[in-house]
């Protein structure tokens, strides 16, 4: 009976550990509203974005359609923050998933979650004109102003 109890406890622990990633399977999409992952073999313009408590610097970026941007992201805050590039509607929809799974990790072509003092890069080609946003979808952060805008002309 002790062996059965140990196996049940191990299975329960594994299911709890896997819970934060629930809902993340939708990130495997092949197309993105704001463009497409960049090509490291092609030229790009570098834009450094600081993830602060509770905003982004800069909060507005203008790019030309077809331009490739290398976002250098630095978490200058004391808490975890995210940078997720999408449309406003997509980020609001994903925010609802994040409310149910606040510890969801992002390491996608269009987004990343960073612990304090860490940095990452996203290489992105803006193939579509319009206004897009980058947002921190950790519950509460967007509400406090962690939203930036990208205008693609």
Order of helices and strands: HEEEEEEHEEEEE
- Uncertain regions: pLDDT < 50 for 5+ in a row? 4-29
How helical, in percent, are the residues?
Answer: 10-25%
Known CATH architecture: Sandwich
Q: What strand order characterises the main sheet?
A: 4-11-10-6-8-7
In the CATH scheme, the class would be Mainly Beta
Strand count: 11
Give the count of helical stretches: 2
Domain count = 1
Could you name the CATH topology? Immunoglobulin-like
Descriptive account of the structure:
The structure is a single chain. This protein is α+β, with helices and mostly antiparallel strands and 153 residues long. It has a single domain (23-152), classed as Cupredoxins -  blue copper proteins (Immunoglobulin-like, Sandwich), CATH 2.60.40.420. Helix content is 20%, strand content 35%. The chain has helices spanning 2-18, 88-100; strands at residues 36-37, 45-51, 56-57, 60-63, 68-75, 81-86, 107-108, 111-114, 119-125, 130-135, 147-152. Residues 4-29 have low confidence and may be disordered.
What layout of secondary structure does this protein have?
Blueprint: H1 2-18, E1 36-37, E2 45-51, E3 56-57, E4 60-63, E5 68-75, E6 81-86, H2 88-100, E7 107-108, E8 111-114, E9 119-125, E10 130-135, E11 147-152
Parallel strand pairs: 2-5, 4-11
Antiparallel strand pairs: 1-9, 2-3, 5-9, 6-8, 6-10, 7-8, 10-11
Supply database-style keywords:
153 residues, alpha+beta, Immunoglobulin-like, five-stranded mixed β-sheet
């Amino acid at each position: 009976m002790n062996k059965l109890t140990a196996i049940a406890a191990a299975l329960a622990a594994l299911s709890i550990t896997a819970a934060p990633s629930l809902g993340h399977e939708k990130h495997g999409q092949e197309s993105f509203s704001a463009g497409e992952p960049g090509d490291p073999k092609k030229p790009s313009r570098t834009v450094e974005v600081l993830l602060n408590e509770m905003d982004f610097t800069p909060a507005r970026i203008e790019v030309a359609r077809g331009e490739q941007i290398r976002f250098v992201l630095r978490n200058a805050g004391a808490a975890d923050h995210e940078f997720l590039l999408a449309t406003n509607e997509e980020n609001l929809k994903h925010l609802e998933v994040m409310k149910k799974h606040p510890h969801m990790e992002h390491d996608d072509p269009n987004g990343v979650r960073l612990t304090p003092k860490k940095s990452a890069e996203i290489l992105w080609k803006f193939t579509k004109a319009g206004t897009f946003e980058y947002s921190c979808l950790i519950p509460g952060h967007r509400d406090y102003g962690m939203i930036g805008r990208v205008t693609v002309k």
